[in-house]
Amino acid sequence: MERISVKKLLGTAPIHQEVEVNGWVKTFRSNRFIALNDGSTINNIQCVIDFEKFDEAIIKSISTGAAIKIKGNLVESQGRGQSVEIQVSEFQIHGTADADTYPIQPKKHSLEFLREKAHLRVRTNTFSAVMRLRSALSYAVHTYFQKNGFYYFHAPIITGSDAEGAGEMFRVTALDPKNPPLNENGDVNYKEDFFGKETNLTVSGQLEAEAYAMALGKVYTFGPTFRAENSNTSRHLAEFWMIEPEMAFHDLNDNMDLAEDFIKWVIKYILENCGDDLQFLEKRLLDEEKSKPQAERSELPLIEKLKFVADNNFKRVSYTEAIDILRNSKPNKKKKFEYIIEEWGADLQSEHERYLVEKHFKCPVILFDYPANIKAFYMRLNEDGKTVRAMDVLFPGIGEIVGGSQREERLEVLQQKMADLGIDEEELWWYLDLRKFGTAVHSGFGLGFERLVQFATGMGNIRDVIPFPRTPQNAAF
Ligand code: 4AD
Ligand code: MG
Known about the structure:
Residues 131-467 form the Aminoacyl-transfer RNA synthetases class-II family profile domain. The structure is a single chain. The chain is an alpha+beta fold. The protein contains 13 helices and 16 strands. The strands form three sheets. It has an eight-stranded mixed beta sheet, with helices on both faces. It is globular and about 85 Å long. The chain binds 4-amino-1,4-dioxobutan-2-aminium adenosine-5'-monophosphate (4AD) and magnesium ion. 4-amino-1,4-dioxobutan-2-aminium adenosine-5'-monophosphate binds at residues 163-164, 204, 206, 227, 229, 236-237, 240, 242, 244, 400-405, 444-446, 448, 450-451. 4-amino-1,4-dioxobutan-2-aminium adenosine-5'-monophosphate binds next to strand 11, strand 15, strand 16 and helix 13.
């Protein structure tokens, strides 16, 4: 007999045949109806037991969370709410789940409570839907790039360079922290460490991806990155996954085109392939919205919101234009932003970004040509000498989802910039080599995968879209 998934049972399996299915009990009603789920879909298969035919002790051991095997006949369902059901002829308990101590009860648990149970929360409908979508989005990311001539490039996790120059790195060391070797100045002597120098967990694979783009043409990374920034927000993780395409012979406009096309494509992919999970999450959000005041409710239901992004152009605006808009704007009744932008050159705060996207343009926005002094050292200086070819993609409800740029390809200009910022040329000698040997215009960006998953699922907190979130004071397991 073929072992069969719940998804298949509810979809394509022919009825009036014997089937075998394994899964976990969601609910058990009236000693008769088991709702069984195996993770293949948000929906459960109803399994009907004639309890008089089975031993009472076995019936008693069926409870929410138990893992069981069911054999029986797949028939049309008499009841409402499902098209088919299994008339159970045989069942076997793989493992019971004590109803008094099993944390995931058949009721609504708060997301905060479930965060404490990261190993079990994926057994809830919400988290199983989110994690299936996360998986589908990963597949879509690879498919998009592979179809479009990009090579998948594996950036190193342990690295000697600080790609963003922001000093937010986790140190990697094999030295005894209680007794590290010191040099004559009393500083830790990393030359005696495993790697013979100071090393860190990567904050971005970009610099290494540039090296590969300058030979393979178009590459992308998709891997974990790490930031030791102490940001306790609903948008920041200490460990997150980043997608970083890098393209030789592509300028900032090409880069913006790619970012927009790529995001639309992956959103369309889940709209076409993940309907059940999206509908479930949309309903969850609508229920949640009912408890909010009207003004805070989202204007569009989840699926409409995704379709809107997939089908409409993103608005492209220069930093200078954006600053003018913000200076002349009245964001709310108090008519003030918390942080007022006094002059050209100031960095935008998330309240400004969200105002532009959610109130002013009411669509995703790509901001470009930022002041050089608020962006990273590697960005291509514009002819005006004060802005760089940077771009950020801003999304409703999320803020910054993508950060990217055209890279400085001119050796002397890059050297000057590094000197101005006090970046040691010896640290990045190999990166400078790329400008000495066959340099060319090139561009790329980084998309924070969890922020994309947040947008796609409507989850408010980034901790709820990654299986085991790492945030300040939280890496219990
Ligand atoms: O803007 P960032 O810092 O850009 C870079 O790292 C570039 N080197 C990328 C490149 O050009 N190849 O980060 C890129 C994106 C952000 O827009 C955001 O979506 C996400 O990464 N991100 C985070 N996501 C979750 N938690 C954090 N702490 C994040 N920091 C950045
Ligand atoms: Mg950024």
